[in-house]
């Protein structure tokens, strides 16, 4: 398994440069479509598994669907990455608030009887990391 993050910009650029979808498979051949109907004038490719006709059909189905599946997967990854970044930022901020709340020197609450050192510098570091991981404003497409 790759540990390199997916380059979604490159993946989407390749998808956007290809003939618009959806594409459709007919047997082992792949065609473009207009209004969801296979367009014989938009022949794209054919798979060549002469010894395995069912496998050739499966390959063609996969390739035809990749035209719409890849952009959908890239969009879902972007959505999930943004959601993860938002949750990370919220968690860091919540934990930073909790640290400050229990600080004997800086908490707005009465801390009589509670002994601990001031960890507000740690809380500030967490807030800065939250600001870095917070998602950027959505890009209009
Ligand atoms: Zn403090």
Keywords:
single chain; 141 residues; alpha+beta; 3 strands; 52% helix; rod-shaped; binds zinc ion
Could you tell me the mean pLDDT?
89
**Poorly predicted sequence stretches spanning 5 or more consecutive residues:** none
Distance between the terminal alpha carbons, to the nearest Å?
A: 31 Å
Shape: rod-shaped
Strand content: 5-15%
**Total number of domains:** 1
The string of secondary-structure elements, in order, is HEEEHH
Identify the bound ligands. Answer: zinc ion
Structure annotation, total helices: 3
Number of strands: 3
What structural class should be given to the helix and strand makeup? alpha+beta
Instruction: Summarize the main sheet.
Output: 3 strands, antiparallel
Rg, alpha carbons: 26 Å
- Output the strand order for the largest sheet: 1-2-3
Provide the helix percentage.
40-55%
């Amino acid at each position: 398994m790759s540990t390199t993050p997916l380059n979604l910009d490159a993946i989407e650029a390749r998808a956007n440069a290809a003939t618009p979808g959806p594409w459709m498979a007919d047997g082992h051949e792949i065609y473009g479509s207009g209004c969801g109907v296979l367009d014989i004038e938009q022949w794209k490719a054919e798979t060549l598994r002469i010894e395995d006709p069912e496998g050739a059909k499966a390959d063609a189905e996969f390739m035809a669907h990749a035209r719409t599946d890849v952009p959908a997967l890239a969009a879902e990854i972007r959505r999930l990455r943004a959601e993860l970044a938002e949750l990370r930022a919220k968690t860091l901020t919540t934990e930073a608030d909790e640290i400050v709340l229990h600080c004997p020197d800086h908490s707005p609450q009465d801390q009589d009887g509670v002994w601990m050192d001031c960890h507000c510098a740690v809380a500030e570091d967490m807030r800065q990391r939250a600001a870095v991981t917070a998602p950027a404003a959505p890009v209009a497409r």
